[in-house]
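#structure-requests
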Amino acid sequence: MAGAISFELLQKDAGGKARRGRLTTPHGMIETPVFMPVGTAATVKAVKPEDVRELGAQIILANTYHLFLRPGHEVVRKAGGLHKFMNWSGPILTDSGGFQVFSLSSINNITEEGVMFASHIDGSRRLLSPEKSIEVQNALGADIIMAFDECVPYPAGREYAAASAARTTRWLARCKAAHLDTDRQALFGIMQGGMYGDLRAESAAQIAALDLPGYAIGGLSVGEPKDVMYGILDDCADLLPQEKPRYLMGVGSPDALFEAVARGVDMFDCVLPTREARHGRAATSLGSVNLRNAAYAEDFSALDPACDCYTCRHYSRSYLRHLIMSKEILGATLVSIHNLAFLCGLMAKMRAAIEEGAFEVLKREFFARYYDG
């Protein structure tokens, strides 16, 4: 399916399934595998767009549900689209709003038409359907838009997971029919099926038949143990077209990124790096650091001596701890910059290792330092 993006598979790791690719969009190229910082309400929390770009991010994610409710997609359309509205010149991906409908609303009613839910802002009743999700995302103007799906919780019985996956496929067909701006925006389908391998295979075959520009693996990282997620991922990526980008939604811990890339996934997003930063936790080359610990009160070394991000070049652990303990906004900003730079840099190392045929070596060395050291 020709359209707004193209994907080139440049190389596969000689010893496994890890892939090195390049995604071309209307707002620039994306080298994969890639981590996408999350800008929920058209902003990556506490970090300016210029700083997000400088730390190495290639693409960001914004949330359809939140922007639908506030400020409203028509406001963003009148502003010239999401890129102009938030002053981000690079590629943007918007999710469908499906996950937020199910996770943030305590009252929702799922029908074939869509989901009737109560706004978490003012309690007003709203309908989000496949057609409405596409309408909102068309107005936002992201380079990649996601199909409206039903996110299956964990745990879920087989009967419910099967019915939900079938509904997601029907909704995907409606999303494709409603999406007319294919030259400017690429629609990705989403695989569902819960923790059932045969349902996953059935879902993958059905969505691949629609010949979309890319595909996502949904319904993982929703509370299941990581070994269960990895077991499902063992086959999930292989079920999707080799020549299309594969996106694992909602994953951002270093171990999960390595394990998913090793299984053939190309794209990731997660709120984890900025959420952890707001709680004073930082990812470093030698493991996770909790800046709230008293041990760092007089530690005047860089947060991560192996990192050259803005934060590590200019500020000490002692100062960062002071900001976090004082609940100063600057603390969240500086640690967020570092955490995002760390993950974007980690993905760059993965890309280089795949090119050199050394991905498994990098994975072993990283785990030994970060988790075992």
